[in-house]
Amino acid sequence: MGMKAKELVRRAGVDVDALIQELNSAYCDEWLAYYQYWIGARVAEGKMAHLLAEELAEHAGEELEHAEKLAKRIIELGGTPSISPELWLKESTCGFLAPKDPEAMVLLKQNIQGERCAIEVYQKLLDRVAGKDHVTEHLVREILEDELEHEQDLEDLQGSCAVDKKMCMK
Ligand code: FE
Ligand code: FE
Ligand code: MG
After folding, report:
1. Neighbours of ion ligand 3 (CB under 5 A)
2. Distance between Cα 62 and ligand 3 center (Å)
3. Which pLDDT does position 169 carry in this prediction?
4. Which structural domains are found in the chain, ordered by start?
């Protein structure tokens, strides 16, 4: 823990325990998002599978980076990141959408849903710390920017399917 780190946040009028809890929930979301992308990239089927798998694999790596950044900040503030996968589902906000139907278009839809949930999570976190806890604010803004980009990347893929259905359908 960083004693000063915690003190600064408290002094700025932020409830540190509530913040840690919210960061932890986002941390759980990130692990689930990481795995959702990782496994999606491998099981994807259909004409668009190759294209989609590349994007999903890239996003998986970025979700893992988000988990790393969140863990670092949680520890700095005196908290403990959820140390067991059992906790990920329990404490997550966005949950996990298993790729039961590996059709690329179905995976796309699921992952867009996940990104939209993540965007709401980080917007809410940003509102909690904005103008007060500058370090967390910076971190959350960086992650939010990535999530917005993820949503757009996936929407673009969906859009290219709307233009040329033959390209994407089985
Ligand atoms: Fe993320
Ligand atoms: Fe994302
Ligand atoms: Mg991308």
Report:
1. 153
2. 9
3. 61
4. 3-168 (1.20.1260.10)
